[in-house]
Design goal:
Strand order of the largest sheet: 2-1-4-5-6
Number of helices: 14
Largest sheet: 5 strands, antiparallel
Structural class: alpha/beta
Distance between the termini: 24 Å
Order of helices and strands: EEEHHEEEHHEHHHHHHHHEEEHEHE
Strand content: 5-15%
CATH architecture of the largest domain: Orthogonal Bundle
CATH class of the largest domain: Mainly Alpha
Length: 628
């Protein structure tokens, strides 16, 4: 493909300008500010249209930046040939894309041609605008040369399957987004959120035994307080009747209050004794379960360890056989019994033996982590937690038991003293004293009844709260299996995405690596032409990235001087173009590519220009006579 001529009606500061291109090297020399870069951008826009139409500033919006300074028709024409046909392409540009016009004519017949559409650049060069900018078109302000998927597709000659690399990019982006969404190692990842939720649910499940025990204690307290309340009411009623029906001499003495307190205390003591026995029974049962789970876990660990030991022994045996076979093959090769090419077999056998030996060590070094072992460990942990809670509860109950026993003894002694005192004072009591005494006793019964009702209401409120908490914990426990299955599925999905990304990258690198040698040969040729030095220190990868070896380490060219970066970028660009267009060569636009080179390297650059112009049609723009 070759450029023949172009005419600019109005484009930026250029107006009514015509240029005729040479077959090889066309040099446009003009001072700074003349419009050389504008001319280069005109060619790019004619083939690819404007970039940045959605941006508001002139820096990012080419349509705004290149508006004619003096008004008039915005656009021009380019005449070019491909094969045996010559075309004239005309474009005019409006304030918006929909106001643009495009026309293509067969130059020989003057008739409209449908060989190319408004996407002439992509159809003609087989690459998109960004790839054109990174290869064929060297802009003075942008020397980016990294390989796009469009460039890789062109290098791989995938013109018959143009969607393959874009589809690869789309798949990688989608897989990466999905992995980012699932990320188990980040708080915002879905797997991490689900696992945090699982921890909360398991914590709720672990509370169930303790909450159930507390509810049972509340129920026992409620029964005790109900009985105490009924007893207080019955004694009050009995005392009130006795006051009105019996003579003063037969009425109960004051010691009946102490007797009532003693009876209540003895009832509480009996309840505490029953509770102590209940806790001990639950503790014995829970300990049996704990020991059973512990025994099952030890047995499972022992079986898993034995199985791993068997696997490791098999691996070590295989490693020994591989090593012995390697020695035998090596001896046979050295003695000439086997041909020399067979010498690679000992190396492979030794490598396999080493891998098996390493695998045996890894198997022995890993802790057994089967699903059954993890389940038993979790069950053991829950039983241990419940046992600790029961131990604390037993200690608390026995402390209350000791206090209640001491209270009962104190009330018995107090009752004995009160009865002795009442007997001594009975003879001197008057009727008024008896009435006053009866009122005080009835008031004390009322106070005890109110106290019982308040404590009973408090226990019932606590029972209702515990019942609600137990219900919530049961709901949490019921959600655990489904959540565990969901987490397992999400982890499998995450791992699958990771493996798929790895396979895609491996396949892409494998595909691209086939074109590395031609690329490196071209790069080395241009590098030597520009620098006069060998390119042995230059390394590249499947992405066509360049690194320069210095002191045994790869160095990124972006850390080097501007001149070195420009030089490497130009060589890389030309090497990619050679690989992209092995037969029909495109034209090249070079807008002062040597402005950052020193005098010696400029000489190499001029050699490069004249050599490359033997294969390519080059438009070379410069503002300094020393650079052409």
């Amino acid at each position: 493909m070759k450029l023949i001529s172009c005419h600019i009606e109005n484009f930026g500061k250029l107006k009514d300008f015509t240029y005729y291109f040479e077959d090889g090297l066309s040099v446009l020399f003009a001072e700074n500010g003349w419009g050389k870069s504008t001319f280069a951008d005109f060619l790019k826009v004619m083939f690819y249209g404007f970039d940045g139409d959605n941006r508001r500033s002139e820096d990012g919006n080419e349509r705004l930046r290149f508006r004619p300074w003096g008004g008039g028709v915005y656009g021009g024409s380019v005449t070019w040939s491909r094969g045996e046909k010559t075309y004239r392409m005309l474009r005019t540009f409006g304030a918006r894309r929909k106001e643009d016009t495009f026309a293509l004519y067969d130059e020989e017949t003057g008739l409209p041609s449908s060989d190319f559409s408004g996407n002439t650049g992509e159809e003609l060069f087989g690459i998109d605008r960004d790839s054109f900018r990174r290869t064929v078109f060297w802009s003075q302000s942008d020397h980016e040369t990294s390989a796009t998927t469009s460039i890789q597709a062109k290098i791989g000659d995938l013109s018959s399957q143009p969607d393959d690399f874009p589809a690869y990019d789309a798949a990688v982006k989608r897989l990466s987004r999905e992995m980012e969404r699932l990320r188990p190692d980040r708080a915002s990842g879905l797997i991490r959120k689900k696992e945090d939720r699982l921890v909360v649910l398991k914590a709720d499940e672990a509370k169930l035994p303790l909450l159930t025990a507390q509810l049972e204690e509340c129920a026992a307290k409620e029964r005790s307080l109900t009985a105490e309340l009924e007893s207080v009411r019955a004694h009050r009623q009995q005392y009130a009747l006795s006051v009105t029906e019996k003579p003063a001499a037969a009425r109960p003495r004051k010691d009946s209050r102490i007797q009532e307190q003693l009876e209540n205390s003895e009832k509480k003591l009996a309840l505490l004794i029953d509770k102590d026995r209940s806790i001990q029974r639950r503790g014995q049962k829970e300990r049996q379960e704990y020991l059973r789970v512990k025994k099952d876990l030890q047995r499972e660990l022992l079986e898993e360890t034995r199985e791993r030991q068997k696997q490791a022994d098999v691996m070590r045996t295989g490693a020994g056989l591989a090593s012995a076979s390697a020695v035998i093959f090596l001896v046979l090769c050295l003695s000439g019994i086997l041909p020399a090419p067979m010498a690679v077999l000992p190396v492979l056998l030794l490598a396999a033996g080493g891998a098996m030996f390493w695998q045996s060590g890894r198997i022995n070094g890993e802790d057994p982590e089967t699903d059954e072992i993890l389940r038993l460990r979790e069950e053991k942990k829950q039983h241990s937690s419940y046992l600790n809670a029961l131990s604390r509860k037993l200690a608390e109950n026995r402390a209350l038991l000791r206090e209640q026993k001491a209270l009962c003894e104190a009330l018995r002694r107090k009752l004995d003293r009160a009865e002795t005192a009442q007997e001594a004072a009975a003879a001197s009591c008057t009727q008024g004293q008896i009435v006053s005494e009866a009122a005080g006793i009835l008031s004390e019964y009322d106070r005890q009844e109110e106290d019982c009702r308040a404590r009973l209401q408090e226990v019932r409120a606590q029972s209702a709260e515990l019942t609600e908490m137990i219900g919530n914990c049961k709901v949490s426990a019921s959600l655990i299996p489904d959540l565990q299955d969901e987490i397992s599925a999400l982890r499998e999905q995450y791992d699958t995405c990771g493996r798929t990304l790895s396979y895609l990258e491996e396949a892409r690198n494998s595909f691209t690596s086939r074109y590395m040698n031609p690329f490196l040969r071209s790069f080395s040729r241009y590098y030597s032409m520009l620098t006069g030095q060998s390119a042995d220190s230059v390394r590249t990868d499947a992405d066509f990235s360049i690194a320069v070896m210095e002191e045994g380490l790869p160095r990124d060219p972006s850390l080097m001087s501007e001149g070195t970066r420009d030089l490497i970028s130009l060589c890389r660009r030309m090497a990619m173009i050679d690989a992209m267009y092995p037969v029909e060569k495109p034209f090249l636009v070079l807008d002062d590519p040597f402005s950052n080179l020193d005098d010696e390297r400029v000489k190499g650059g001029l050699r490069f220009l004249h050599s490359a112009s033997l294969e390519y049609q080059i438009l070379y723009l410069t503002c300094h006579k020393s650079r052409f």
